[in-house]
Amino acid sequence: MGYTILVVDDEVDVTELQKLDLEDEGFDVICENSGYDALKHIMEDKIDLLLTDIAMQDMDGYQLYAKVMELRDDVPVIMMTGFGYDPNHVVVKAKKDGLHDVVFKPFDTDKLVELIKTRLDGGRCNIETDH
Q1: What is the pLDDT of residue 62?
Q2: What pTM does this model have?
Q3: Residue 52: in which H helix or E strand, if any?
Q4: Which terminus of the chain has fewer CB atoms gathered within 10 Å of its CB, N or C?
Q5: How far is the CA of 26 from the CAs of 29, 43, 46, 82, 93, in angstroms?
Q6: Full domain range(s) for residue 42
Q7: What is the pLDDT at residue 87?
Q8: Alpha helix stretches (DSSP H) within the chain
Q9: How many distinct structural domains can be found in the chain?
Q10: Domain containing 42 — which CATH number?
């Protein structure tokens, strides 16, 4: 496939599981457990898509999304969350700024892969995927 996906979540188990699932689908996967660490890959122009958690210790998903849009607005971003309630309104803020896709944990890997392929092909599908 030749696409590189950056998976960012402050939980190592989540990034490792996503890495295995996405590599099985033929993607190259880079994992980071910090938004700040993820930014170096964005700045080095190494990724084709960002899959990021919303709630993280060092910066939330909106802050990372905003920085990616500032540095590389050509990179599709998919946010993932395990929370039904978003106390900081990260999803609302990001959607106002152009975010198209949010997936809710636990999500179906096949649906996530379909969404990733759509976004990499330039599709704007506005999908919210729940369990």
Answers
A1: 84
A2: 0.85
A3: strand 49-53
A4: C
A5: 9, 24, 17, 25, 32
A6: 4-129
A7: 54
A8: 12-24, 35-43, 61-71, 90-96, 109-120
A9: 1
A10: 3.40.50.2300
